[in-house]
Amino acid sequence: MFEPDPALNLLPVGECHDDALQLQRELSLVRMALRVGRLGAWRVMLPERELVWSEQVREIHEVEEGFTPSVEEALNFYTPESSGRIREAFSKCVEEGRAFDLELEIISAQGRRRWARAIGEAVRDQRGGISYVQGAFQDISELKAAEQRMQESARELANTLESIAEGFFTVDRQWRFTYVNSEAERLLEKTRDELMGKNIWKVFPDASAQQFKAEYERAIAENRPVTFRQYYPPYERWIEIRAYPSADSLAVYFKDVTKDHVAAEALRASEERFRLVSRATNDVIWDWNIVDDVHWLSDGFLTHFGYRVEELAAEVRAWSDRIHSEEREGVLQGIQQVIASGEESWADEYRFQRKDGTWAHVLDRGYVLRDASGKAVRMIGSMTDVSERRLAEQQIAEQAALLDNAQDAILVTDFADTIIYWNRGAERVFGYSRSEALGQRSVELLKSERARHSEGYSELIERGEWSGELKKFDKGNREIFLHTRWTLMRDEAGQPKSILAIHTDITEKKKLEAQFLRAQRMESIGTLAGGIAHDLNNVLAPIMMCLDMLELQLPGEEDRMLLATVQKSTQRGAELVRQVLSFARGLEGKRVPFKPTHILREVHKIARDTFPKNIQVSHSASAELSCVMGDPTQLHQVLMNLCVNARDAMPNGGALHLTAENVTLDEVYSGLNPDARAGRYVMINVADTGVGISPEIRERIFDPFFTTKELGNGTGLGLSTTLGIVKSHGGFIQVASEVGQGTMFSVYLPATASEGEESAERTAPVRLPQGNGETILVVDDEESVRTIASKTLERNGYRVLIACNGAEAVSLYATQRNEIAAVLTDMAMPIMDGAATVVALKSINRALPVIGSSGLANVSGLTKPLGSDLNAFIAKPYSAEVLLNTLQSVLTKNESVLAAGA
Ligand code: ADP
Ligand code: MG
Known about the structure:
Number of helices: 31
Bound molecules: adenosine-5'-diphosphate, magnesium ion
Helix content: 40-55%
Distance between the termini: 182 Å
Shape: elongated
Oligomer: single chain
Radius of gyration: 67 Å
Strand content: 25-35%
């Protein structure tokens, strides 16, 4: 009897009683269902293993209609793996009657891959043997593909969740973990197995007490995501969480932000600190964001400069515009340079305008912050108002300048006697510069008397000050007398700190005092001597008269000889008395016309008689010597003074030569000497071969009381008296001197001619010989002489070349020998002296006329070794007349020599 399958039991079968018909109907229904469900059926008959398949199965395999393969052939349509499984399942089904259900991969006749599901079971006959195996077959390719896609996307999702850097988990509505990624495992310090399916609050009981639970519940209740940050004490971590609720679960992303949190916290704290510091400090703190040009200034800005920070634009200009215009460029350039050069810090001082318009001096320092590439992005710095300090510095500088202006030497020493301050006055008085003196021991540097110093010290310590006179030595080892005041300087605590010493140089005063005393003594000696001389005259006068009478009364030869001796001695005595009287009478004198010749002779005589015998004295005077108007006694004194000086200058002997001659001075000459006027003079020279006068003291020798001689030997009054007398006669004095060679004093006294002479002079002025455009090389180390000589020569028809020393002269001559007609050279010069110069010039050209000149010519041996090398010699100072005459004579002589040679 046909038993309908309960699964198909849909049909109202009650009305059908024909079994066969019923079966027919049921079968067609099944077929329909199979078609709709795209199900195929198959059967393999046993033992023949003959395969029958339905239309659908054929279609799945994509074989032609009517083709029915054998079982073996059909198996070829499967991948080896699938066919293996079918074989196994099939044989188990045939042998043991076990049903199978397989998913198989087909490679269709068209080569397409498909998936199919095959169900099979064994069908037995009445005897229980298996007569065939049959089953259903379904194309599940689409299903399979969808499943694969799903698996893939699940895998992708899992991959994504695994690969994100954050922790991720999901929990269901019962708070059970349903997914945990590996980052979550790491952060939660639990494995997936420990978590999956477990209740989150059971695993992490501490978390339920925290914000976590409340936030998750809120997310679920309000059905929206929540984000929060929470500290989780068991792990000592800050955790940032985002939780997304969905219908049946909660997805949670979370990460460890402990580091960020700490950094952010630290930054916040440091910004806070920065703010507090900038408020607390007296300075103005600034922060310049270079990239955006935002300039922030601290509150100090208000207190120092009067601006409210809000008043100023937050640009750097707001600051730079207020810098003094003279300094602005420099300041900004300095900053740019620091930024460009990669340096770290910048500093400058400038004037900055306050709100009230006044100027503040500020010291500004900044640090440059750079990004990783080294680009400057920010500068932070501070402005310090140094106006007060500047003011103080200025005051100190002014005070120091005042101290420097002081004539006195002002110095400060510490208690170890180290010099810590040294003013200009000290430089002047002691000759040591500030840098030489600072750091030295004062007692050693100035060679102070230690005993005297210690005395002063004890009193200084006791009373806080001391004053007295000290003797010290300057850099040139010159003795200096000082009036000194010492003051003890104390520090703020009142402790003695240093010693302020103010020294007044009283050396000159001391000397003046001494010299004044001596001069007074001399004066009284003079008066006394004058008195004695006067009395002696009275004593001598009757002796001389008696002698004349005795001569008559005692005619004997022997008596006369005796008398002559007495007479000579008496005359000597009378002469001496006259000397003493002329000395004692002083400057005031009568004016009479006289020829100085006999005074010259007289002085010569005294010198010869009284000076040491190793001094040779000579004199010469021109025969037509003019008269001068004056006091012969005073002129006598003048010459005596000069001779005594000459004697003193020749302690080891030498030569003293007195000369007198007429000279005419022109305007050129007088223009160069303020004391000289053009005109006719009598020139008296006193020349010695002594030690000479060094240039350093040349200026001072005429000063009263200036002397280089030891106490008792000199008064320093000789030359000053001499100059006074000469000036009172309308004359002047010139000095020529070379150290080690000798000195010549030239006394010029205006000449007074007799009436006739004078008019003749006026009507017939001296005719000077003129040059013819010849070039003369003038060599002299003294500028005044060069000028006189060249002016004189140029005025009188010559051209002039000038050399300042011998070397220059020789090189000039070597290059311009064809132009130079003659050379006029000084004989005493530094570098290359006259003699060497003449020899060098003559070696270039033997025929070159050379005129030597010197202020010391008469006495020094300068010209002697030259022999014939020198064509002529003229003594300095020479007049135009002498120079031009000499020049003309050497030039004409030379011409005749050349002519003779030719
Ligand atoms: P005193 O002879 O008393 O020193 P003077 O006024 O006569 O005073 O001379 C001043 C100084 O000039 C001398 O001390 C000396 O240094 C210097 N002096 C003067 N004449 C000569 C000379 N012929 N040679 C070298 N030095 C001289
Ligand atoms: Mg003298």
